[in-house]
Hints:
Elements: E1 4-6, E2 11-13, E3 23-32, E4 43-50, E5 62-63, E6 75-77, E7 91-96, E8 106-113, E9 126-135, E10 141-146, E11 156-165, E12 168-178, H1 181-188
Parallel strand pairs: 1-10
Antiparallel strand pairs: 2-12, 3-7, 3-9, 4-5, 4-8, 6-7, 8-11, 9-10, 11-12
Amino acid sequence: MSVISLTKGQKIDLTKGNPNLTKVHVGLGWDTNKYSGQHAFDLDAAAFLLRTGDKATGIQDFVFYNNLKGINDCVIHRGDNLTGEGDGDDEVIKVDFSKVPADIQKIAFTVTIHDGQARNQNFGQVSNAFVRVLDDATGREILRYDLGEDFSIETAIVVCEIYRHGAEWKFSAVGSGFSGGLQALCANFGLQAG
């Protein structure tokens, strides 16, 4: 079975065509362009567990480098990669669909540039950004979404969403940029960044 490549705005069933799929590995990766800045890039992946109205209700709904596990361990961040060096996934977030509380309607996966505004860094200086979803049990890659070069001044991106559709889970390739980094993302999802 071949990997499905998606473009921005596309949606696809995850569990309907893969009835045994209960745990997924969401890998996010990127390269930074060579430029004459003084600071290394530190990109951070995160997941927001969203309820009705696409809102999180507290820190337990925000999985990132300082809070590696969501409610019931339904979402687990595998740790911060400070450099993005090398090939493959730079950061990984695992999801166990069987543990996701019933009131969580959607999981939004994001990438931000740590201190991007202060360091004068943005996603215009990042290339080859992608997300891929693998069956955690078999390691088989199910789908991939390459973000392309659509961003210039943004310091945060909602890369994709995995959401409930009846009893099934679907994937949406979002690719929506934000200025204002992590604070802007948190505000968008109903949280205040400390």
